[in-house]
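Supplementary Note 3. Input sequence used for the single-chain structure prediction.
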Amino acid sequence: MAMERNSVFGPVLLVRFANVHPSGYFFTVIKQFGTGVIISTAFVHLITHAHLLFANECLGGLEYEATTTAIVIAGAFLAFLLQYSSFRLVEARSRNVAAKSGAQHAESMSGDTSDKSSQNGAPVQDHMHRMPKLDDPLSVLILEMGIIFHSAIIGVTLVVAGDSFYKILLVVIIFHQMFEGLALGVRISKLSTVGLQKKLLMASAFALITPLGMAIGLGVLDSFNGNNRATIIAIGTLDAFSAGILIWAGFIQMWSFDWLYGELRDAGAVQTCLGMISLVAGVILMSVLGKWA
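The predicted structure, written as discrete structure tokens, is reproduced below.
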């Protein structure tokens, strides 16, 4: 899908070649709109769809009624565990490097001067070290993982949908994937520690996943049965699991980081209003699209 490809590659290329500032008004609008899209996708699209699937009469009724929300929690916990583990590893490595450099510094300095500098420097270093990382590649990868899981399902669904529903579903999916591509593309473009080639690879994964899902759909078209028990459970599980990942990414990595720790924390009135309006607009628009997909 050309729209999907352009939406995810556009922000990356604009920052690299057009010198568009990633913290300016333009990117604030796109980024906050994308945050609203991600959050609405998790709750309105994925959780609702998973709940409807698990309530399907073909399953014969599940003994555990909270299956959907339990899987959502599992997805959110996995996303948290991945990010927390990576932070602990990075902190341990940073402490080792700091300890070695501190020992070398102590050997080269006299007693009083060394004591004073280490007393003054340690709290600041510790404070800066514990601040949330706003351009952490793993955070973006976790977000992309949640998007990719359900984008593959979207590709399959588009192919196996009936003719009477295909046109409406196609239009909705185009807008759905375009908005998610913008949200992901903006986050990728702000990765200061990642080179252009790796950014393009990250964007390519999203751009290719829906066509890949469509190819899978074509391969199983003759044998696909949407009312099959195993199919319902598999799709419902992936939907709920993806929702959990996106809830973590949307609330923790995107919404809270941008507004409590990022550029919007001390932004001016204009940028703050633009960000808030864009955030609400993303939630509302994606919720409206939830009527059809």
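Residues 114-129 have pLDDT under 50 and may be disordered. The chain is about 80% helix and 0% strand.
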